[in-house]
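Summary for the lay section of the report: proteins are chains of building blocks that fold into shapes. Here we show the chain for Triosephosphate isomerase and then a coded description of the shape we predicted for it.
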Amino acid sequence: MRKKLIAGNWKMNTDRATAVELAKGVAAGAAEAGDADLVVCPPAVYLSVVAEALAGSPVALGAQNMCCQDNGAFTGEISHTMLTDLGVEYVILGHSERRTIFGETDKNVSDKTLKALAAGLAPIVCVGELLEEREAGKTAEVIRTQFEGSLAGVSETQITSVVIAYEPVWAIGTGKVATPEQAEEVHADLRRLLTERYTAEIAQGIRILYGGSMKPGNAAELLALPNVDGGLIGGASLKPADFLGIAKAGL
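The coded shape description reads as follows.
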């Protein structure tokens, strides 16, 4: 059995006070959310205060992005050493907003993934198709291309530390949700791709999350799917009750 993972991506939201309040709210209710692994990913400027708010709780700290370089003249970037110095355990890489708004490529994601793994961070590597790609019947092709490119160079030993998140871009922040059949189809495809590249045993151990307007009202149905091992949660992660409600729905 793969243990469920519920990760909250706060994106560019909260201020210092609300970030601390949100983190404390999640930490306070974590014990009632079952045995799922919980991760919160605040804006980078609040990682330190959120780490303090989570201290002593089972909730892990994640980051929303990182640079593929160790240090140097990379204005505005954040290195793996900065993240680990603050107690970060997970890092979201290749989120659709990074790909579509900031032009990140599969090669960029691969470089960051390899650097994160070398640093002992667990990458949450995102893949997903645009609406026009789904409507053109290209979902499987897009997912395979992103999977192969974003995980290029990742060894059998390293892949066991990777989490994959399927996020249909057309369902992020839109209120639209992939049907259970659509979600399961892509998750199963990703499991097959893992089997092809590595082994069936390794593939069965990798957690694949669904990201795309998951909330307490639809979480139970999605989390019950055979190949859905948790959620990468956006808007619903900004309220402790909603975030924890999703975790409880997976019990």
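Put simply, here is one thing we learned. The two ends are 13 Å apart (CA to CA).
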